[in-house]
Design goal:
The complex is a heterodimer of chains A (84) and B (416). With 84 residues, chain A is an alpha+beta fold. Helix content of chain A is 32%, strand content 42%. Chain A contains 3 helices and 4 strands. Chain A has a 4-stranded antiparallel beta sheet with strand order 2-3-1-4. In chain A, 29% of the residues are buried. Chain B is built from 16 helices and 13 strands. Chain B is of the alpha/beta class and 416 residues long. In chain B, 54% of the residues are buried. A 6-stranded mixed beta sheet of chain B has the order 4-5-13-10-11-12, sandwiched between helices. In chain B, strands 8-7-6-9 form a 4-stranded parallel beta sheet, with helices on both faces. Chain B has 3 domains: 4-57, no CATH class; 80-107 and 213-388, Rossmann fold, CATH 3.40.50.1100; 110-207, Rossmann fold, CATH 3.40.50.1100. The interface between A and B is medium-sized, with 24 and 42 residues. The structure holds pyridoxal-5'-phosphate and zinc ion (ZN). Residues 9, 11-12, 14, 24, 26-27, 29 of chain B line the site of zinc ion (ZN).
Chain lengths: 84, 416
């Protein structure tokens, strides 16, 4: 059986205040064997924004993103909404 | 020969060659076109610009193409209407409407960006252009790619009403209706853009495409006799138009065509989709995505690509942001039509309503020059107002009936 393909996905994570101090990204990475390659971050008093690349097996990356969503982190493509 | 030096990351400043690139490989920031302004400065003067044909290419040196433009030879240079009736109604002294509701060929400001995108796509050697859009963008890409003789793919969400597709379909592009929610359509398109060697206008061509919006600002300045408006209200969806208006003003200053940029820029959004205005009001430079719920479909972008730059533009200029409810949007459309004889789409209803609010709040003083941006045509969003207009006078084909009806109306009006 062929190995599942490794993918890289550029995403923006938006953390609500209650999650800014929690290591959710780290937990997600560990849990699903994903390499999070952080490129940029902005944090204010009430919200945090992290721009990064997630690298891992395709279904793991999907699961990792789902995990973040369930935790309450918004996961958005870095190019913004394309449908105009 | 063009004057483009290359691309530059808006976040980290790293430079890239002029290629169909759109994201910085280091910090994932968006790329922006940079120019050789000192050479442009030698070439351009007010007189030279004013002597050229009245379309957006009269500012060609400030647009990112190297050869001759292919499309858009009749786009731009839309009217700047002195709106005295509306000014009186709003209690202000000097008010103008920059009216892209009559843009050639598809009646919205998207003709500006698409003219540049398609000219650039051809220059890059692409044989296919594509976009994902529920309205104005799709109309313009379809029409202009027909004229440019380039293949065209338009992606739409499958649940889009057929009536909305006609104004694209008529130009015979390939229309792909994607059965999925909004996020899934977005996702698919970005995968297509990465896999196919196409010019996806608002993805891999976006840095070039977006530059077309600057012409809206240049024209306003030129039409005001080389003056920058003190206040300008701009609709915000992805946030590109508003940031490029700001860039446009500053370029004119850099070129010595104006002395200073004392403009305040105001972001106008619909209440049901106001991520940028919320950020402005909260003073937060992080734009929180929202799920859009508004009749202003052309502004319904919940995760704006240039939201942060839209926010920055407003803050740097000393402007502000406001939002309009669906009801206020309809009132805005009707107000502009009733006072100035201009029928705008919902996005224009948003800017008129927001202008009214900002004036009433005292944020915009009544005695300074104001420009309201009107970026699209009301014939495209008739359903938004059709049930909110006066009833027609229905009569039998007989003069008596007509006169009876007139009397009734007159009576009503006189309150007797
Ligand atoms: C009529 C109209 N006005 C304004 C906008 C906003 O432009 P931007 O996405 O550059 O903020 C759009 C499209 O997005 C539009 O269709
Ligand atoms: Zn960068």
């Amino acid at each position: 059986m062929a190995e599942k393909e490794t993918v890289k996905r550029m995403v923006k994570l938006i953390f609500p205040q209650n999650l800014i101090r929690e290591p959710v990204t780290f937990q997600m990475a560990k849990k699903y064997d994903i390499v999070p390659n952080i490129r940029r971050a902005r944090v204010t008093e009430t919200v945090g924004e992290l721009v990064l690349e997630l690298e891992g097996k395709e279904d793991n990356v999907e699961k990792g993103i789902k995990y973040l969503l369930e935790k309450g982190v918004e996961v958005k493509p870095i190019v913004g909404d394309i449908v105009d | 020969m063009g004057y483009v030096k290359g691309l530059k990351c808006r976040e980290c400043g790293r430079e890239y060659p002029k290629e169909p690139l759109y994201v910085c490989e280091y910090c994932f920031g968006p790329l922006e076109v940079i120019y050789d302004y000192s050479s442009i400065r030698e070439k351009l003067s007010r007189e030279i610009i004013s002597s050229r044909a009245e379309n957006l290419w009269r500012y060609q040196e400030l647009l990112p193409i190297d050869g001759n433009p292919l499309v858009g030879l009749h786009s731009g240079f839309t009217p700047l209407v002195k709106a005295d009736n509306l000014a009186r109604e709003l209690g202000v002294k000097e008010l103008y409407i920059k009216d892209d509701s009559v843009s050639h060929p598809t009646l919205s400001f998207k003709d500006r960006v698409v003219s540049v995108a398609i000219s650039k796509a051809k220059e890059f050697g692409f044989d296919t252009v594509a976009c994902a859009s529920t309205g104005n963008l799709a109309n313009s890409v379809s029409a202009q790619s027909a004229q440019a003789r380039i293949k065209c793919f338009v992606f739409i969400p499958a649940d889009l009403e057929l009536g909305k597709v006609v104004a694209s379909l008529v130009y015979a592009p390939q229309v792909i209706a994607v059965e999925g929610n909004y996020d899934e359509v977005n996702r698919l398109c970005s995968e297509v853009a990465n896999k196919y060697n196409w010019a996806f206008v608002n993805i891999n061509i976006r840095p070039y495409y977006a530059e077309g919006s600057k012409t809206y600002a240049y024209e306003i300045v030129e039409q005001l006799g080389w003056r920058v408006p003190r206040h300008i209200i701009v609709p915000v969806a992805g946030g590109s138009l508003i940031s490029k208006i700001w860039k446009g003003f500053h370029e004119l200053k850099k070129l010595g065509l104006i002395d200073q940029v004392d403009a305040r820029i105001y972001a106008a959004q619909a209440q049901g989709c106001a991520p940028v205005v919320t950020a402005i009001k909260e003073g937060s430079e992080i734009i929180k995505p929202v799920k859009p719920k508004t009749i202003a479909k052309s502004l319904a972008i919940g995760n704006p690509a240039d939201g942060y730059y839209a926010f920055k533009t407003v803050m740097d200029s000393g402007g502000w942001g406001e939002e309009a409810s669906d009801e206020e949007i309809v009132e805005g459309i009707k107000l502009l039509a009733r006072t100035e004889g201009i029928f705008t789409e919902t996005a224009g209803g948003v800017t008129v309503a927001v202008a009214k609010k900002l004036i009433e709040q005292g944020r915009i003083p009544p005695d300074e020059l104001i420009v309201i941006s009107i970026t699209g045509n009301g014939l495209k969003t008739q359903e938004a107002v059709s049930s909110k207009l006066d009833k027609v006078m229905r009569i039998e084909p007989n003069l008596n009936f007509f006169e009876k009806e007139m009397k009734k109306r007159g009576g009503e009006k006189n309150g007797s």
